[in-house]
Amino acid sequence: MQSVQVNTGFFEVTQNTQSAVSPSVLSLSPRTQESQLQRISKNAIRRSLKASTMDGMFASVFEITTGGILLSNFLVELGATPVQIGMLSSIPMLVNLLQPLGAYFSERTKSRHNFCLWTHGVARLIWLFLAIAIGMVSWGKSDLDNHQLVVLTLLIILASHLFAALGSASWLSWMAMLVPRQLRGRYFGIRNSISSFTRLLYVPLAGFAISFYPGGHIQGYGLVLLFGLIAGAASLGCQFFKADINPQSHNYSEVKIFSKHKSQNQTQNQDLSLDNPIITNPSPGIWKDSNFLIFLAYFGLWMFSFNLSAPFFNLYMLDTLNLDVSWVTIYGSFQAGAGMLMLILWGKLADKVGNRTILFLVGILVAIIPVLWVGIGANSLSVWLWLPLIHIIIGGSTAAIELCSNNLQLSIAPVRMQSIYFAIAAAVAGGSGAIGTTIGGFLAENLVFGGLSGLFLISVGFRLIALVPLLFVQEARRQSLTTMFKRLRKLQLTN
After folding, report:
1. Is the pLDDT of residue 6 over 50?
2. For 10-253+271-480, which CATH superfamily applies?
3. Which of 29, 48, 252, 437 is the most exposed place for a label (fewest CB within 10 A)?
4. Is the pLDDT of residue 453 over 50?
């Protein structure tokens, strides 16, 4: 595992106490003045970030097994319709509407770790019922037919992602408090790169295991699912090595990084992870935060337009092109490999030029990707050249979108209501994404719109429109895109 170096002295979280109060805290409200210091050592931060990286690696195995191409192929083998395939993607997004409720409950707990352990633990344990059902059908101990197994799978997806949605905002807020602001792009780039490397290795291996299992694809998926559940449990185990955060404390906290210089006896304070400190400028109400509302407009439109077509790329290969799942998983490895190689670059670049700029420029490329699918066939040129090339482009570009969207949320959300902001953003994105996938499923079945090829072309226009609100989003310590473009234009005119 590649370690992540964090050059810090101490990570201090100011909690409710009357002892060891810094001068800046003395100017706070009476409730905040009653604060105590919970110190997390430099080694604890490093251990937490390394544990989070391992967590992401094991979680990737679980997520690959219970979603994406492997689960899509399982449903296709059972005879699922395009609408049901669309539900495979829409259900996880739709349940994100419950994230504000999960954030509400998480803010009333005293441990980020415990809350995430219960929500994500239940979410992963539920998949054991599907593994048991596949085993019983394979051994002739159950009368479930293929249609009933499809319905059971969709119900398990609903229940699993419901519990995961309740804990997602709390987990993201936990990571926002542990990862220094100035290292976010670099750290999440490395973390996501390792997760992509895991995907690069695991997807083709799992695909070949399913494809060549003597009992058939359905039984093969059941075996792979058991392995994914073990990886999911290991992922939860890694979280025990991460420093815990008490939500009751960090709602009224000041997070500072203290750098100690050998040549000085004084301590120099630098802001670690607060983009909007709550000491003298309390955050406005969420619905009065115009910058956040503009971001919601972008995020919602983007998720709608992106999921209008993206969930059906695998269906196009498996059903329309009738490619074997082993081929499709190999293409998935190309996509993961491209993402792995580009993530570190995107992370470093985001720390320099900002997340919003990358989102806009790379977003234009992602917007036109569906056009590349039109005309793809099952011929040798497509199988050996165009499909690998398309997946490489998708992997490199979507890696930037995922990384920078996450970092931009961390940048614009104030600490005091951080999990609520994350939950609302996820709810809007989930709801709009689910609507996009549902509409996409119906359009794919309707030949009036040209089937899947027509759907791909329609989604291009929506993706380009979704980028417009991003021009007006303000990122902390960064120029707006409109200001940057105006300055570039002035430079051109002067020259």
Report:
1. no
2. MFS general substrate transporter like domains (1.20.1250.20)
3. 29
4. yes
